[in-house]
User: What shape does this take?
Amino acid sequence: ASTLKEAVAEAIPKKQERLKALKAKHSNTSLGDIKLDNLLGGMRGLKVMLWEGSVLDAERGIAFHGKSIPDCEKELPSAKDLGLKGKEMLPESMLWLLLTGEVPTADQVRGLSAELASKGKLPSYVEKIIDSFPKTLHPMTQFAAATAALNHDSAFSAAYTKGIKKAEYWSPTFDDSIDLIAKLPAVAARIYYNVHGKGDGKQAIDPNLDLIGNFSNMLGYGDSVGMTDFLRLYIAIHGDHEGGNVSAHTSHLVGSALSDPFLSYSAALLGLAGPLHGLANQEVLVWFKGMQESIGQEASDQQIEKYLEDTLASGRVVPGYGHAVLRQPDPRFSALSRFYEQTPELRDQPLVKMVQQVSKIAPVVLGRSNKIKNPFPNVDAASGAGLTAYGMTEMNFYTVVFGVSRALGALPNLVMARALGLPIERPKSMSIEALEKSLK
Ligand code: NMX
Ligand code: MLT
Assistant: This one.
């Protein structure tokens, strides 16, 4: 296949066959029973959703079609492989892997980058919508609203109105998904310019650059190879975290009503904007700032320990720590830490040093609580420090960067859900009275 769409078209019949075989043999096989704890505990652990891109293991962390982050770093075409400045894997490579299960060649990635660049410019009505938002409106609210507004030109919506057959749904869903992934950097950069005055607000998209090379230019960091490469790594590893997390699940749920990819992903962004989910990367910086103001930049381990204890005692969460599934340090945290250690200009940055220091103390303090199931750092504990060190100090923009990334996983799932003909999601809910009666 030379294009991603051709590769997806080749992958789909095989998936359909495998699913058909599973259904024929196992439609009534149990995948586990449901306890009251599952119903009241946010459905933790219930296997109730099909999601192809990645699987999260509590101990080993995320695997994208079976590949760990270090595997991806070794195997996926990188900036260097495409002759670009930098060396990190490209989010386009990750997108290809997530959609097809295959590692693309450098040429395939180059073609995909060019396609994304050709579709990256925003229609002027969306620019006007973004420009009309008050600077004080949170960037994530702006991001979700602008993303929803892009559905004006949805190929899926138009095809559905014309009466497209169910077997063909995946094709305009794919077209919308690529269109949206191409435009998210421009939406984000326009918001950054309006709210924080950085970048030049224009969408000068270079057809020979990768998605993140262009994103970095639009944000005003194009001269920094370090920042551009950091963004590539950041956006590649935040792309997918199986299907049950709030943003991914939201896009799946909303998409199951056949809402188009723009609407489905807008809804996902609104979930990502919550402090227990994507906004945690902003919260971490707020927490760090509070700590620096209270105990200073050169705080001792004992002072940090006390600050962590005080946070817990005040009834707040320590942002960047804990996880609903993981029971070990998040390999995405480790990947970012490795990047910091291997990058001389970052290694000694005060915030980077503090991230590393806190990551050794917090697990001990959180581990003393008998209710916190995972005392280890998640990705959000590390991600803001790199952005800050490269000059992006505006922490209310961090979740937008996460939001540019999560589309890489959420949108392929929508394509696959339509290719596999998955139905509208509609679980059963129970009232207390109904539970009392059925559990007597
Ligand atoms: N600080 C303080 N308390 C915590 C923390 C933490 N970092 N993590 C869990 N707990 C508490 C949790 O609030 C709950 O308390 P209660 O019973 O009083 O409601 C108790 O420990 C049990 O929670 P868990 O079963 O360990 O975690 P759960 O699966 O419910 O939640 C998170 C997972 C990620 C929401 C939770 O660990 C948290 O709030 N962490 C801080 C926010 C954060 O970093 N979120 C980012 C997640 C990654 N992402 O990018 O989305
Ligand atoms: C994510 O990346 O979505 C978070 O780690 C949250 C999760 O997986 O539950």
The chain has one domain: 1-440. Residues 54 and 242 are 5 Å apart (CA to CA). The first strand starts at residue 54 and ends at 57.
